[in-house]
Design a protein that fits this description.
The complex is a heterodimer of chains A (about 290) and B (about 250). Chain A is an all-alpha fold and about 290 residues long. Helices cover about 85% and strands about 0% of the residues of chain A. Chain A has a single domain (about 1-275), classed as ABC transporter involved in vitamin B12 uptake, BtuC. Chain A is globular. Chain B is of the alpha/beta class and about 250 residues long. In chain B, strands 6-7-8-3-9-10 form a 6-stranded mixed sheet, with helices on both faces. The longest helix of chain B has 17 residues, at about 175-190. The chains are: A mainly alpha (about 290), B alpha/beta (about 250). The structure holds adenosine-5'-diphosphate and magnesium ion. Adenosine-5'-diphosphate (ADP) binds near residues 15, 20 and 41 of chain B. Chain A: It is found in: Cell membrane; Membrane.
Chain lengths: ~290, ~250
């Protein structure tokens, strides 16, 4: 099965793209989860769908091909992330309100562009649930570029992103410019979501950002450890998900998420096992 | 001449229309251990936020380490342990080492990385608060008192001249409160760090502080602990607006 992925060009594109998003989605997901912004990922993925639908629409109606749906999705996602930040500022006491507003806005626009483009087709289905076969070389290069940018910026601003996530007030007092750093974070999140949609699909992209983090959170001692473990779990889920998706002809979004959930359940089991073992040892060494 | 670390002149502040501080004049001498007491809602946290530059006073001026607050840039010389420090996300997966390292983030600066000498400083700060054996433990697994020590270490790693603590011992048990004050005492007397401490445990505090300040919208008292403990109940109840009694611990 793995041999197929190396032999056929289109599968190799998918496989390489999968490996890339298996790194960047859990990487950004780590910050998203600890800042309790998991739902923002969901809202942004629906805005991205609107952008993709817009891209498909202009492709179909005006035969414009230089803006691929990935690029228009990315543009919508970034604009959506800026709106979320503005709304969170307007509704200071009800910051979570920004999420349903942006999410429903995204779905509303998607419906409009989809019907303008004469309704559902396989392209759209692929964007909703991911696809093993739809990744073009062009997509691969776009996603590679985004991945390099994301890795570079997270690497350069790691200590600021980490410090701000833990304690915003203290970060501000110590002289970190919280606004631009937060802005950087939200833009990176928007880019990662747009990039991941090719493989996992709009509906499940937030799962690839959060489930590996949820699993590693239970096992890791520190933040860096959690980050690397999340990436390992993310890669495992993507590789196994792509192979099984291909083998059973299921959109990989579904298989990747189900495997992520299995990993999560195993991690909960391992943690329980560890705690029980420690308790037993305490009983033996104790009175 | 004794140096002053903080000097506030005629500071007033109001949230919307509610006057919280009126004409506060306060000097914090270098090397002092100042206890800031007063009733709930008396404006203690607000006063600290003004010193930290988080809010601007409506009137008055402030000097920090001899510089006007508007031009002051050495924020890492001022350490802060918040009232809310203990209310951080307990599930946040960070080791003690990682938490203390955050104290250096701003000082190291953008686009620069942690080096071996920083690692050394972080471990020293953890050792100063007596938590070295927990350096690679998850902060969420520690007790409230231990976590407060870690937050102090996060400030100490910058070698601050002034350390401000807002009710750090809330929710810490009596035995650990005692050890906590011993730590503060050491930092103040041995390392010459100026301390500003907001607290309600006046009994323990008066044993260690060099100055006591009483704030209820305006400053009602500024003197040494002996004078403070000898204040009559009548004096105190005018400050607090209700009867109080100080618990003095004798040994
Ligand atoms: N953000 C705020 N907005 C409006 N009022 C506030 C705010 N923060 C504090 N206050 C009010 O200011 C007064 C002083 O509060 P604070 O400085 O926290 O007092 P303390 O720390 O002495 O208990 C209180 O009456 C409080 O209700
Ligand atoms: Mg307070």
């Amino acid at each position: 099965m793995l041999a197929d992925f190396l032999e056929y060009d289109f599968l190799r594109n998918t496989f390489l793209t999968g490996l890339l998003i298996g790194i960047i989605a859990p990487l950004l997901g780590t910050f998203v989860v600890v800042r309790r912004l998991s739902l923002i990922a969901d809202a942004l993925s629906h805005v991205t769908l609107a952008g993709i639908a817009f891209g498909l629409f202009i492709e179909k109606k005006f035969a414009i091909t230089f803006i691929t749906p990935i690029y228009s999705g990315m543009a919508f996602s970034v604009i959506g992330s800026i709106f979320i930040e503005k709304l969170r500022g307007v509704y200071k006491a009800y910051q979570e309100l920004a999420i349903p507003i942006i999410l429903s806005g995204g779905v509303g626009l998607s419906v409009i562009f989809i019907s303008l483009a004469n309704g559902f087709n396989t392209d759209l289905f692929n964007y909703l649930f991911g696809s093993v076969s739809a990744v073009s070389v062009k997509d691969l290069y776009s996603i590679l570029t985004i991945s390099v940018i994301v890795l570079l910026l997270v690497g350069l601003f790691y200590k600021e992103l980490f410090t701000l996530s833990f304690d915003e007030e203290h970060a501000k007092i110590s002289g970190i410019h919280s606004k631009p750093i937060h802005f950087l974070f939200i833009i990176l999140t928007a880019l990662v979501i747009a990039a991941s949609i090719r493989i996992v699909g709009v509906l499940l992209v937030s799962a690839l950002m959060t489930l590996p983090v949820a699993a590693s959170m239970r096992l890791a001692k520190g933040f860096k450890q959690m980050m690397f473990l999340s990436i390992a779990f993310g890669e495992l889920a993507v590789i196994m998900g792509l192979i099984s998706g291909y083998y059973f002809s299921i959109p990989p979004g579904g298989t990747i998420v189900v495997i992520s959930i299995v990993i999560l359940l195993l991690s909960i089991g391992i943690k329980k096992f560890k705690i029980n073992r420690i308790r037993k040892q305490v009983n033996i060494n104790g009175y | 001449m004794t140096e002053t670390v903080v000097s506030m002149n005629n500071i007033s502040y109001a949230y919307e229309r509610k006057n919280v501080l009126e004409n506060v004049n306060l000097e914090i001498p270098k090397g002092s251990f100042m206890g800031l007491v007063g009733p709930n809602g008396g404006g203690k946290t607000t006063l600290i936020k003004i010193i930290l530059g988080l809010i601007r006073p409506d009137s008055g001026n402030i000097q920090l380490l001899g510089k006007n607050i508007d031009t002051f840039r050495d924020w890492n010389k001022i350490g802060f342990v918040s009232q809310k420090a203990n209310a951080f996300n307990k599930g946040f997966p960070a080791t003690v080492f990682e938490v203390v390292s955050m104290g250096l983030t701003a000082k190291i600066g953008y686009l620069k990385f942690f080096k071996a000498k920083h690692k050394q400083k972080i471990l020293e700060a953890i050792e100063q608060v007596g938590m070295l054996e927990f350096a690679y433990q998850n902060i969420g697994n520690l007790s409230g008192g231990q976590q407060q020590r870690i937050f102090i270490a996060r400030s100490l790693v910058n070698e601050p001249e002034l350390l401000i603590l807002d009710e750090p011992t809330v929710g810490v048990d009596a035995e650990n409160v005692k050890r906590f004050y011993e730590l503060l005492h050491r930092l103040n007397r041995e390392q010459n760090i100026t301390l500003l401490l907001v607290t309600h445990d006046t009994g323990t505090m008066t044993e260690h502080a060099t100055d006591i300040v009483c704030l209820n919208r305006t400053l009602h008292f500024h003197g040494d602990p002996q004078t403070y403990t000898s204040l009559s109940e009548k004096d105190l109840s005018t400050i607090y607006g209700h009867p109080v009694n100080i618990v003095v611990h004798d040994h």
